[in-house]
Amino acid sequence: MKETAFSAYHGAETFGLLLVSLLVFLSGCGFKDIHEQTSLMDNTGILKGTIRNESPQDGPIHVLRFRNEEGLFVLERKVTAAKDGSYEFNVTRGKYSIFAFIDISGDGKYQPEEYGNYIGTPASIEVQDNEVLYVQPIVITGLVPKPEKEITLIDKSLAVWENIGQIVTLDDPRFTSEMYSAGLWRPLDFLEKAEGGLFFLEEYDKNKTPVLFIHGVLNGPTLWQKVLADLDRKHFQPWLFYYPSGLRLDMISDYLTQAVSQLQEEYDFPKYYVVAHSMGGLVARSFVKKYVEKSTRNSSILQLLVTVNSPMDGMSAAAQGLQHSPIIVPSWRDVATDSEFLRELYAWKWPKEIQYHLVVSYIDNKSHDGVVPLQSQAT
């Protein structure tokens, strides 16, 4: 068998109908739970808007998304508006409210002296399945207006946003095959229990080059155990991206883009590298596109991408799964051959400043590595 050092890891990864075959072992209750979670995540919408700062205060503008649950305003997510004031959220169907403030203190938390505003009184913004909704601009002119009636705020923001730069070990109880499976089939359970994030294995060291590792479907940080054992830790510091592999790939790369940008703002590292395996290669390509579009300067900071055994041309098995499976895993829509995700990805021109090394493997006398066709790997 011809193989790279990485190909031994690939047997744990499967796609499409190979995954669907597992359903026969599920109980009726388990099937229902999986169907509900995958359906909910497969129908996510996008909420977009802009912030206009017309006040004398200056600083990063944080935008908070609250879910309106029968009069209770539940904080689910916070982002930092782009330089042009734009922001967006991936959302499931429901009612939401948006609040923005200028973080002059730099602590990421709202303080009474910081200027801000919200939409309406605050109003509820209703988002339907798969809807892309543009909301009215939020204009900040001074202190936050007092709402017409008292509201109750509850913070239920996901831990995944607190795990950016968190130091862990590979023995972390969140890094298990059970959690990797949940990430594919039950992404909501994964986000609650395994959380995910962009983890460090050591304190940030400005004298070491970060290497960002991205796993594929049905996997997680322990995938890289042998690679990390051989990594020159005197010169490189590993960062481990951990995510539920059942989500749409745009959602995954959105998070990664924001996480890396946050770390970049905090540490101002001059360069870093990315290594991605299997479906993680598609996540990485999508991340690079968004990262470079965020700032052309970024193409000189991200200096290398390596994809290993990645289905860069998609998987026909995933397309078959979309046609025949009683349950649709959202990520299949993007991995499927000739998907809209892939077409948009390759319509974008790769920056010449970023080196790209593509690693493939195959079984002797076969045109695949056991899962991914060689032709798809080599695209």
Summing up helix and strand content along with how strands pair, one would put the structural category as: alpha/beta
Principal-axis shape equals: globular
Number of discrete helical segments: 12
| Mean of all residue-level pLDDT scores | 86
Q: Topology as H/E string?
A: HHEEEEEEEEEEHHEEHEHEHHEHHHEH
Q: Number of DSSP strands? A: 16
CA radius of gyration is: 21 Å
Largest sheet: 6 strands, mixed
Poorly predicted parts: 1-29
Question: Which range best describes the helical content: under 10%, 10-25%, 25-40%, 40-55%, 55-70% or over 70%?
Answer: 25-40%
Strand content: 15-25%
Give the N-terminus to C-terminus distance in angstroms.
Answer: 21 Å
Could you walk me through the main structural features you see in this protein, from its secondary elements to its overall organization?
This protein has 379 residues and is α/β, with parallel strands linked by helices. Helices cover 28% and strands 25% of the residues. The protein starts with 15 loop residues before the first helix and ends with a helix.
